[in-house]
Amino acid sequence: MTDPSSPSTPAASSTSTTGKSTTLRVVGLLLWIAVFACGAYLFWSLSKSNREPDQPTANESNGPRPIAVASLENDSDSNSQETENTHEEEVSGWDPAGIADFEFTERSGRTITKASLLGKHWLVCFVFTRCAGPCQNITRQMYELQDALQDRDVHLVTISVDPEYDTPERLTDYAEIFAADSEKWLYLTGDKDETYRLIRDSFKMPVKEMFGEARKPGWEVLHSANILHVDDKGVVQAKYDATKEAQVHQLVKDIKAIVPPSEEGASNSTTGENETEVHPSGNSTSKPDDSESLPDDTPAVTE
Q1: How far is it, in rounded angstroms, from Cα 158 to Cα 105?
Q2: Sign of torsion, CA 98 160 249 206?
Q3: Which domains, and CATH codes, for the chain?
Q4: Is CB count within 10 Å lower at the N or C end of the chain?
Q5: Contact 225, 300 (CB under 8 A)
Q6: What is the pLDDT of residues 60-95, one digit of tens each?
Q7: Closest to 269 measured CA to CA, from 96, 151, 122
Q8: What angle do CA 173, 248, 281 make, to 5 degrees?
């Protein structure tokens, strides 16, 4: 007989081993189900995030995001105001005390300084006589201004940006092509460094001498195509793009609103548009014809 107190029998041991194996299988299956469920959830979450754009959280919507939007709106408003108030901002860029003093030689040989022009409004442009670019158009617009403002006490001033080449004699020949009134339209030349310093620092216009491969005949200097209005105190008031007819017409309107007609100018304004005019210098001149122009112009720097 078998002793009942015996620890185990072979049958009982087999049954116990089978039970443990079954339990392990069930636990393993549950673990695999859990892993599969987690994987499926992660896949679903990633798919959802790819389909829908990110939405700001409550903290984000109440935090920095509106500040950024407000900043963009302010920038937009600022840009709009800059576009609408360009004239005022340009004026603020010029010295309210006026441009620096200068000394040039006029085509007639006389010396012209800032003091020579105080008490009169004047319009100034920058060209050079061997220019193959915009200079012809700029000078033609200056001639039109001479004609349109002949009844106003306004001076025209052309400053050469190629003064080492543009002698008074060359400036005289150039001025005669455009029937420049020697009493009201000055052609100035002088020291190159002083000229460039005045243009850059006082008139706030670009000017640059070209060198190397960029220096080609007729393209020796890069310069502005603007015409600037300087008031009777020597302060720059505005700039007008000489390559744009509308701006030149606006310039005429602005000057006529500021400078009243002069008695002498009013009498001169009766001269026929296509008639030959006799200037105070005694020289008989007529309006320039397009046939006297140089090759077609190209756009210039208008900043």
Answers
A1: 12
A2: negative
A3: 103-292 (3.40.30.10)
A4: N
A5: yes
A6: 444 333 333 333 333 334 333 333 333 333 434 999
A7: 151
A8: 35
